[in-house]
Amino acid sequence: MSASRTERLLNLLIALLNTTYGLRRSELRDKVYHDSTSTDVAFGRMFERDKGELRHFGFDVETVTDKGWGSDDPATTRYRIGKESNRLPDVSLTPAECTVLILAAQLWEHAALGSAAVNAVRKLQASGGLVDAELPAGVQPRIRPAGQAFEDLVAAMHAQHPVTFSYLAGSTGKEEERLVEPWGLGSRFGQWYLVARDRTRGDKRFFRLSRLTSAVTVLEKESFTPPADFNMRAELAGLAELPVRTAVVDVQSGRLHGLRTRALPDPVPEAGAGLPDAGRDRLSVPYRDAETLAEELASYGPRVRVVSPPELLTSVRRRLAAAAGFASAPVPPVDVPAAFSAVSPAGAAPGAAANAPQRTSWPGCCSWYRSWSTTRASTSAKWRRNSESPARSWKRTCGS
Predict the structure, then answer these.
(1) Percent of the chain with pLDDT over 90
(2) If you average pLDDT over each of 47-51, 57-61, 128-132, which comes out highest?
(3) Does residue 261 lie in a domain region?
(4) pLDDT at 341
(5) What span, in angstroms and rounded, lies between the C-alpha atoms of 396 and 160?
(6) Choosing a second label site near 306 at 20 to 30 A (CA), which of 159, 176, 319, 358?
(7) Do both 306 and 381 map to the same domain?
(8) 373 within 8 A of 353, measured Cβ to Cβ
(9) Do 317 and 358 reside in the same domain of the chain?
(10) How many Cβ atoms are within 10 Å of 214's Cβ, its own excluded?
(11) What is the CATH number of the domain that holds 10?
(12) pLDDT score, position 332
């Protein structure tokens, strides 16, 4: 459909939606089409085609006919689109459906779509679409957000830009640089997967987001076209669930009760591992994805030690080394222009700027600094005037 035809249909739609009594064909021809050159027959055919297009899009174009009062008052035909006939029905949800929606909103509360989920629930509550629903006791849905990589991949997928990232290959256990065309993102068995075309290998590949070991770089100067018949649900349905494996860890006594509840009742003996150190308990924890478990274990710090398998130990060490490197890295210097340096406003007590917190006085945004300096100068003056009883004066000045 050409741009001119799209504009004409939109103008006709807006005109028919915003009339109560309807518009005659002559009024539409003059005010909407601005047509004064074509014949009545040609305009009539174009108008009928446009009405058919609007009906095809789901808009019911009503025809209202006035029969007139007599021979000197001929019948007239008007056109309009009834607003009520094109509105969606009010949302009516059962208590069970309301419970599912609230749980789904809580699921995304701390993830990338948290704000959108909260806004959607707030709109439903304002319109009365959510009835009072009782959430199951002790049920708190959680989703493991994929971090910044998730948002970068979603943006690249919608803009149809290829991306690059480092990926820990499951077959070799080595980090590899990948250049892919992101087709879709989805969750399966608690894991986020990216389905993309690997340009290096020239074929479709599945990438588990937990195995990404670097930030996602979006190549904004390049583009691609995804397959027209791509279906993310069908792709995810063909994935097999990861097998259950067992990790052996030593945990400090009396710590990490959440990890203990998931451990097997009887620890699996590990050949050549020896006995745990004093003050530690040996646990056997089932898992499916080593990277997901490594992220959890690394967050526990020295309270847990990985005994086996080696790939889990390597993943935990890699995360701890990255955290230590980030913490020990020097803070990058910030160059503040001389015009924006902190200054002491007129009337402030001497030395107020030196004793103030290190905050830059940006032009037009220094009300906080002026308020702080004025309060400090006033307090110092009252202190000097009441030097005979400093404690009583300070209490009275600070309101305590």
Answers:
(1) 14
(2) 47-51
(3) yes
(4) 53
(5) 65
(6) 176
(7) no
(8) yes
(9) no
(10) 13
(11) 1.10.10
(12) 76
The pair of three-digit structure tokens given for residue 220, joined into one six-digit string = 């904004």
Note whether residue 126 is domain-resident: no
Query: Helix crossing, 40-56 with 3-17: angle to 10°?
Result: 80
User: Domain boundary residue among 54, 86, 118?
Assistant: 86
Number of residues assigned to the chain: 400
Q: In this predicted structure, which of 189-203, 219-233, 354-368 has the lowest mean pLDDT?
A: 354-368
In the chain, the number of structural domains is 4
Q: 261, 273, 265, 264: which is closest to 245 by C-alpha?
A: 264
- CB-based contacts of 127, cutoff 8 Å, min separation 6: 90, 91
Q: Is residue 121 part of a domain?
A: no
**pLDDT band, residue 157 (cuts 50/70/90):** very high
pLDDT digits (tens, 9 = 90+) for 298-320: 989 889 999 988 888 988 998 88
69 is in which domain, residue-wise?
Answer: 3-86
